[in-house]
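User: Hey, my collaborator sent me this sequence without any context and asked if I could get a structure. I don't really work with proteins. Can you help?
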Amino acid sequence: MAVIATATAWLALKNSSADESVSANLPTAASGLTAPQAASTDAVTELDKTFLTKVRQAGLWEIPAGRLAQTNASSEAIKRAGLHLLEGHSKLDQLVREDSQALQVPIPDLATAEQQAWVDQLRKARGSDFDQLFVDLLRASHGKVFITIGEVRASTKNSVVRRLAAQANTTVQDHMDVLEDTGLVTDATLDDVASTIPK
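Assistant: No problem. I've predicted the 3D structure and written it out in structure-token form, which is a compact way to encode the shape of the chain:
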């Protein structure tokens, strides 16, 4: 027992000396070295505000567009894409409303006039005409907002906005995929999106 006690005491003393030796070589607050500052969670930029507005307005017209796909489309692929829009934008819309309230950033209750006009066009279209119009409008819209989402996700200092941008990125990518799966995405639509990318 005495041998064990002696060995334990010696190990404790050795560990204590090692800790003191290591801590003696660590920088102190007085040495002038400071830890990197974590990203601010309360700074909301104009780009962040624009992003919140765009997410809200996307839901305000794409949810009705998704519903119209269930009744006006001739293709099962379009109806499937419409269901993805309904599900994805319903979730995003709930998140953006909660986040804007938490951040005290006002967001609109109406889609833009242009977006409302798109819904009106879709409401009047039927069959294959609806299918093509649906894909043209929605693939272009998703491609353009995807650019904004990437910019916000890469640069925002606000953790709430960053989380929303990550969710929006996943949702919009899914929507572009199902729209492309219809086989109706045209070069003209992609050229339209490309024309909006800053050079």
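In plain terms: Residues 1-40 have pLDDT under 50 and may be disordered. You can pass these tokens on to your collaborator as they are.
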